[in-house]
């Protein structure tokens, strides 16, 4: 029996087996197999890492022997000996999980050097200075990365010696300087740990174990938690023959993207440094040069590099991010991977690659994530601004937003409820701050990184956030922060740019980004693939216009009560709610009628030719009435004012006001509900006060007639809210039809219209077969359906829900991502039962979930006709719907292929052998 294979040479590994070889390893294998110049090497597999943990942190049996055998192969290929005094082989030890992951162990370069081999290296290259430079790098890297000595200690030594040279750069260090540095580095290590092993094999053994151990390091575990990467994947270890970018004038190292990662422009984009090694470019040791200069400095090398990267891009059919090193004029490739990019670049690269015939349209659609598209639609700080940057932190969550500074989450909530725009500024955030984050326009923290609580939560909410702006000195007790002497106090305005990490003082103008040709092209492709329609939730003519501009195919939800939040309108609305008796109510309704009609007309004009779903009034009454507490304190103030009144007439006036307030207070108290969200709202209002429904329908039909008269095609759908009994819908439909007939008679025209209902209560979903008898369409109101299915009020859940999410009691916020299992089941049942009564019943969804990609995928799976979301989410929904349809096609094709294989296997009389390709 042969031993398990723990080690693969680069030429042995399969380039698509990222889960076994890690991303970096798979890329190295692929490049080696393609015949590109890659220094030879081997990969210790992720399986070996997992076996290491199963084996009490010991290497699994046979692994170390296989590593040594592999090294022999590498020695043979490069003609050098590992640990040999003459002509020594040096290697790099690189970690590499399936996903590139911060928190994993950094790379150790030049491993294999000791007091003896460093002499050999000097003799072999005829360059003592180079050999010593390699050794001082190795000693500090090994000390820091493998032995855990603080980086700054080594940095200080290097800086001290650099400062003594005439030029002040690392390249100015003499061999003597380097000797001193090495001695100092070794002393630092011995002071804290034992010495670096002299035996290169021992160095290698310790380094491999250190990579394995870093997989379960704190930083790595944290990162995986946040990004939902399972611990069971393990990391691979890459051991690769060194090539040297620090070997004189025509040597160097660099990184480059095959296209510009921020704009997507098709042009090599990157940086390099001559006489440098490893991370020098990224670490900012010296200022690197743009890759285009390489064309002048080393034209042959540039030409080869450009042609290799082009081949890599064609091979992977995606933008690549490559690392390379030049050793004495010879180019070596050290890494290739799919390059990270901004939303704008993602869209441009995907469409360009279709034009270049590298990928098909379906692939292009899958190359852009809904989040990237969303990024494109966020406002940004006007690039022409001349405002000075107050501080710069991490670009944790994109978009630009502004508001008045507050330091406490409670205050953020309070002020925003009063209509203020606030930015929450905190040292760092915790789940206790959640409600304040929800209320704020943006969040700024002084501490914490890209995966801190603030960053993760803000990204989840799509809220602008800058993290780790460490220049901010926050003083909670003084309610202020200071940056470089500038004091910013509570209430001051700041502008936050989450896409770049900048924080500005004051209100800096922001702009909506210019969506280019590529965006519209991609959207047309999405429209061809998707099966569902996308509509928008829009309450005003202006929203309707924006929605149509983004490609909405109608309005899925027009909330009529949102039309009443203006001052003058609110008064009429209150009058209507508080009216005692039909007569008084009708009088109030008469004031509302023309306002409503005007709004509807505006919407019909904007949406001519597209369906418009108007929901009848669903006012949780408390939202329109002043609170008892407010009224009581206003009364108290008025009573004080009586004393202060100068004249009897003044006093009289105040007393009248007191009387008015008291009447209002009495009325409000009488109407008060303990659970207004489950109270007198929705169709319940229209059933008990039919005159309300009548007025609304009159406004709707009169507006429709007028629009039609203007040759605007009206596709009207009237929707009855919060139905739980089929009788409720039947009665409301009767009323709607009655008004329709009347208005059409008066106007002498006819209007096509449909009557449907929101399905937003569990009973409605269950009784959908009966309800469908009176409905032309259904629209799932998944906000209320989520509240009532969970028995969870959205207004009160913010605090504990975040703890639920953190402790994984619930996987995601059910108000953001539709709960497939529970709420989703009701949506499925409601759709099935509704269509059992009325085949072909049009069904959509209009809750917040209509703009969430995962929820959209669910709606597509269960065969809904449309989703409706906020205007700015419409493009995201169009893309998500296309991606859902493509995923369904792929799944169906895979199933068909599997069935076909089973049939063929059956013919041959043997079971089908399934080869499972890991990603
Ligand atoms: P990371 O995952 O942080 O990119 P890498 O393992 O890719 O880490 O390497 C860190 C740096 O060291 C990179 O610049 C890389 O090109 C360089 N490097 C790694 N292995 C070698 C090698 N065998 N020869 C020369 N440079 C190397
Ligand atoms: Mg690194
Ligand atoms: Mg790298």
The small-molecule ligands in this entry are: adenosine-5'-diphosphate, magnesium ion
> Which structural class matches the secondary elements?
alpha/beta
Distance between the termini: 29 Å
Number of helices: 34
- Going across the biggest sheet, name each strand in turn: 14-24-23-16-17-18-19-15
As residue ranges, the low-confidence spans are: 910-919
Tell me about the largest β-sheet.
8 strands, mixed
Helical proportion?
A: 40-55%
Rg, please? 34 Å
Mean pLDDT rating: 91
How much of the residues is beta strand, in percent? 15-25%
| Strand count | 33
Could you describe the 3D structure shown?
Helix content is 48%, strand content 17%. The strands form 7 sheets. It has an 8-stranded mixed beta sheet. The chain has an 8-stranded parallel barrel with strand order 26-27-28-29-30-31-32-33, surrounded by 5 helices. Strand 16 (400-406), helix 16 (409-417) and strand 17 (422-426) form a beta-alpha-beta unit. Helix 6 (151-164) runs antiparallel to helix 7 (175-192), helix 13 crosses helix 19 and helix 22 (582-606) runs parallel beside helix 26 (690-709). Residues 323, 335 line the site of one magnesium ion (MG).
Tell me the layout of helices and strands.
Layout: E1 7-9, H1 18-33, E2 41-44, H2 46-54, H3 63-78, E3 81-82, E4 88-89, E5 91-97, E6 108-111, H4 115-125, H5 128-146, H6 151-164, H7 175-192, H8 200-215, H9 218-227, E7 235-241, E8 252-257, E9 269-274, H10 280-283, E10 289-290, H11 294-297, H12 299-316, E11 320-327, E12 330-338, H13 343-355, H14 361-367, H15 370-377, E13 380-381, E14 389-392, E15 394-397, E16 400-406, H16 409-417, E17 422-426, H17 434-439, E18 442-445, H18 453-461, E19 464-467, E20 473-475, E21 480-483, E22 486-489, E23 493-497, E24 502-505, E25 510-511, H19 517-529, E26 533-537, H20 541-549, E27 555-559, H21 567-578, H22 582-606, E28 611-615, H23 628-644, H24 648-671, H25 683-688, H26 690-709, E29 715-720, H27 726-747, E30 753-759, H28 762-766, H29 768-771, E31 777-780, H30 782-790, H31 794-806, H32 823-837, E32 842-845, H33 853-861, E33 866-869, H34 874-908
The site of one magnesium ion has 2 residues, from loops.
């Amino acid at each position: 029996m042969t031993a398990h294979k723990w080690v693969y040479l680069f030429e042995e590994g399969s380039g698509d087996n990222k889960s076994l070889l890690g991303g970096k390893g798979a890329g190295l294998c692929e490049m080696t197999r393609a015949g590109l110049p890659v220094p030879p090497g081997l990969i210790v597999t992720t399986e070996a890492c997992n076996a290491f943990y199963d084996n009490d942190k010991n290497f699994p049996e046979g692994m170390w022997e296989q590593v040594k055998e592999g090294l022999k192969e590498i020695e043979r290929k490069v003609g050098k000996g590992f640990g040999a005094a003459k002509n020594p082989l040096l290697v790099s030890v690189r970690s590499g999980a399936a996903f590139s992951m911060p928190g994993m162990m950094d790379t150790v370069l030049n491993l294999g050097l000791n007091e003896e081999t460093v002499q050999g290296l000097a003799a072999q290259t005829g360059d003592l200075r180079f050999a010593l430079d390699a050794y001082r790098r190795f000693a500090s890297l090994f000390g820091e990365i493998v032995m855990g000595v603080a980086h700054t200690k080594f940095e200080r030594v290097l800086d001290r010696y650099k400062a003594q040279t005439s030029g002040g750069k690392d390249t100015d260090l003499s061999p003597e300087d380097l000797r001193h540095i090495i001695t100092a580095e070794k002393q630092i290590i011995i002071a804290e740990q034992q010495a670096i092993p002299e035996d290169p094999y021992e160095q290698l053994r310790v380094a491999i174990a250190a990579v394995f151990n870093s997989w379960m390091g704190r930083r790595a575990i944290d990162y995986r938690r946040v990004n939902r990467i399972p611990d069971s994947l393990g990391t691979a270890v890459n051991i690769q023959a060194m090539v040297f970018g620090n070997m004189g004038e025509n040597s160097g190292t660099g990184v480059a993207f095959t296209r510009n990662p921020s704009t997507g422009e098709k042009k090599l984009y990157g940086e390099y440094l001559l006489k440098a090694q490893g991370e020098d470019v990224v670490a900012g040791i010296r200022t690197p040069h743009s890759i285009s200069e390489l064309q002048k400095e080393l034209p042959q090398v540039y030409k080869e590099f450009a042609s290799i990267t082009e081949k890599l891009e064609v091979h992977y059919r995606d933008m690549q991010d490559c690392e390379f090193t030049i050793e004495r004029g010879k180019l070596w490739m050290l890494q290739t991977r799919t390059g990270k990019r901004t939303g704008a670049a993602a869209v441009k690269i995907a469409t360009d690659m279709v034009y270049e015939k590298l990928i098909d349209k379906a692939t292009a659609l899958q190359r852009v994530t809904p989040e990237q598209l969303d990024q494109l639609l966020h406002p940004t700080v006007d690039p022409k601004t001349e405002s000075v940057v107050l501080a710069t932190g991490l670009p944790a969550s994109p978009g630009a937003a502004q508001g008045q500074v507050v330091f406490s989450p409670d205050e953020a909530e309070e002020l925003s409820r009063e209509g203020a725009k606030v930015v929450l500024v905190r040292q760092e955030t915790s789940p206790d701050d959640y409600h304040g984050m929800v209320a704020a326009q943006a969040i700024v923290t002084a501490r914490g990184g890209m995966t801190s609580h603030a960053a993760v939560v803000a990204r989840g909410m799509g809220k602008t956030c800058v993290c780790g702006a460490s220049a901010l000195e926050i003083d909670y007790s003084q309610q202020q922060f200071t940056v470089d002497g500038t004091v910013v106090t509570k209430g001051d305005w700041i502008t936050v740019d989450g896409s770049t990490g900048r924080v500005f003082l004051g209100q800096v103008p922001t702009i909506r980004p210019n969506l280019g040709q590529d965006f519209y092209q991609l959207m047309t492709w999405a429209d061809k693939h998707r099966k569902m329609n996308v509509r928008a939730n829009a309450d005003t003519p202006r929203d309707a216009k924006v929605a149509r501009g983004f490609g909405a195919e109608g309005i899925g939800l027009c909330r009529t009560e949102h039309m009443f939040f203006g001052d003058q309108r609110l008064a009429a609305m209150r009058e209507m709610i508080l009216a005692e008796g039909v007569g008084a109510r009708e009088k109030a309704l008469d004031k509302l009628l023309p306002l409503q009609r005007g709004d509807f007309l505006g919407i019909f004009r904007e949406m001519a030719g597209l369906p418009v779903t108007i929901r009848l009034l669903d006012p949780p009454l408390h939202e329109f009435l002043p609170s008892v507490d407010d009224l009581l304190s206003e009364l108290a103030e008025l009573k004080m004012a009586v004393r202060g009144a100068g004249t009897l007439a003044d006093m009289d006036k105040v007393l009248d006001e007191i009387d008015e307030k008291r009447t209002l207070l009495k009325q409000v108290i009488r109407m008060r509900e303990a659970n207004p969200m489950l109270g007198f709202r929705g169709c319940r209002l229209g059933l008990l006060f039919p005159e309300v429904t009548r007025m609304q329908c009159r406004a709707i039909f009169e507006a429709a007639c007028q629009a039609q008269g203007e040759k605007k095609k009206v596709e009207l759908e009237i929707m009855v809210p919060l139905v739980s009994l089929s009788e409720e819908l039947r009665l409301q439909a009767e009323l709607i039809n009655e008004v329709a007939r009347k208005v059409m008679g008066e106007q002498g025209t006819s209007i096509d219209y449909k009557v449907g209902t929101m399905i937003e209560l569990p009973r409605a979903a269950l009784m959908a077969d009966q309800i469908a008898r009176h409905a032309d369409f259904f629209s799932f109101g998944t906000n209320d359906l989520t509240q009532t299915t969970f028995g969870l009020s959205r207004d009160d859940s913010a605090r504990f829900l975040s703890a639920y999410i953190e402790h994984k009691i619930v996987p995601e916020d059910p108000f953001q991502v539709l709960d497939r299992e529970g709420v989703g089941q009701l949506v499925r049942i409601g759709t099935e039962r509704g269509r059992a009564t009325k085949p072909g019943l049009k069904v959509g969804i209009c809750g917040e979930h209509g703009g969430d990609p995962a929820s959209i995928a669910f709606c597509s799976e269960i065969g809904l006709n449309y989703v409706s979301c906020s205007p700015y989410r419409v493009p995201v929904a169009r893309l998500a719907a296309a991606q859902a349809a493509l995923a369904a096609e792929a799944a169906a094709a895979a199933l068909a292929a599997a069935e076909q294989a089973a049939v063929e296997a059956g013919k041959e009389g043997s079971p089908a052998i399934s080869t499972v390709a890991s990603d």
